[in-house]
């Protein structure tokens, strides 16, 4: 089964410091991986995706993610955190068993950036 | 236009009521989704429509009835819901690159 795991319920970081939100995946075949962000009482917003190509993927709002096949990880990173980055972050994988129609989400990580 | 619009934003309904949630997108996406999200939990897939045909039903109870009248519209008809069905209902559409675009959701409360 295709799945992603987010081992941290919450990540705390001071504004201006680098941040990392962790995600590991389990898929059969090539992984289609995504990061989404959700602000309170809002829908999810697409940040970035990995399908093939460079292991470092750049996305919206200065975020990037590093695909590591040997560690089956797809960690989300940002060099300098902003208070406005505080939100709920979901890692997701597209399920090849359903023709890639189904997007399976991790449990989410709450990011808190303190001033 | 890169928006998925959901109406209403909030809905309170009794257990005997019939109501509908509406979702609209004008991005030309041919795959549309309904997700249910409980507080502090990830979205859970309910239904997938592909080219206006239901392609995935995640064993959702029949009190939830989806409908896709055309390629831009997706409805979710609700009838005889239970209090545990209270949640944020999210609609999404998917582009050819596999990116999903989500609406802001409908916050549903069943009383």
Please tag this protein with its features.
heterodimer; A: 115 residues; mainly beta; Immunoglobulin-like; six-stranded mixed β-sheet; four-stranded antiparallel β-sheet; 12 strands; B: 111 residues; seven-stranded mixed β-sheet; 11 strands; 0% helix; globular
Write the layout of secondary structure elements.
The complex is a heterodimer of chains A (115) and B (111).
Chain A: E1 3-5, E2 10-14, E3 19-21, E4 24-26, E5 33-38, E6 44-50, E7 56-58, E8 64-68, E9 73-78, E10 87-95, E11 102-105, E12 109-114
Parallel strand pairs in A: 2-12
Antiparallel strand pairs in A: 1-4, 3-9, 5-6, 5-10, 7-8, 8-9, 10-11, 10-12
Chain B: E1 4-7, E2 10-13, E3 18-25, E4 31-37, E5 44-50, E6 53-57, E7 64-70, E8 73-79, E9 87-94, E10 100-102, E11 106-110
Parallel strand pairs in B: 2-11
Antiparallel strand pairs in B: 1-3, 3-8, 4-5, 4-9, 5-6, 7-8, 9-10, 9-11
What profile does the largest beta sheet of chain B have?
Answer: 7 strands, mixed
Supply the CATH class of chain B: Mainly Beta
* pLDDT < 50 runs, ≥5 residues of chain A: none
Percentage of residues in DSSP E strands of chain B: over 45%
Q: Give the count of helical stretches of chain A.
A: 0
Can you tell me the CATH topology of chain B?
Answer: Immunoglobulin-like
| Rg of chain B, Cα atoms, Å | 13 Å
- Average predicted confidence as pLDDT of chain A: 92
CATH architecture tag of chain B? Sandwich
Mean pLDDT over all positions of chain B = 94
Domain count of chain B, please report it.
Answer: 1
Tell the overall outline of chain B: globular
CATH homologous superfamily title of chain A: Immunoglobulins
Strand content of chain A: over 45%
Global outline of chain A: globular
- Structural category of chain A is mainly beta
Quaternary assembly = heterodimer
Give the name of the CATH architecture of chain A: Sandwich
Describe this structure as you would to a colleague:
The complex is a heterodimer of chains A (115) and B (111). Chain A starts with a strand and ends with a strand. By secondary structure, chain A is mainly beta. Chain A has strands spanning 3-5, 10-14, 19-21, 24-26, 33-38, 44-50, 56-58, 64-68, 73-78, 87-95, 102-105, 109-114. Chain A is 0% helix and 52% strand. In chain A, strands 2, 5, 6, 10, 11 and 12 form a six-stranded mixed beta sheet that branches. In chain A, strands 3-9-8-7 form a four-stranded antiparallel beta sheet, with no helix packed on it. Chain A has a two-stranded antiparallel sheet with strand order 1-4. Chain A has a single domain (3-114), classed as Immunoglobulins (Immunoglobulin-like, Sandwich). Chain A is globular. Chain B is mostly beta strands. Chain B has a single domain (4-110), classed as Sandwich (Immunoglobulin-like). Helix content of chain B is 0%, strand content 59%. Chain B has strands spanning 4-7, 10-13, 18-25, 31-37, 44-50, 53-57, 64-70, 73-79, 87-94, 100-102, 106-110. In chain B, strands 2, 4, 5, 6, 9, 10 and 11 form a seven-stranded mixed beta sheet that branches. Chain B has a four-stranded antiparallel beta sheet with strand order 1-3-8-7, with no helix packed on it. The model of chain B has no long low-confidence stretch (mean pLDDT 94). The chains are: A mainly beta (115), B mainly beta (111). Chains A and B meet through β6 and β11 of A and β5, β9 and β10 of B.
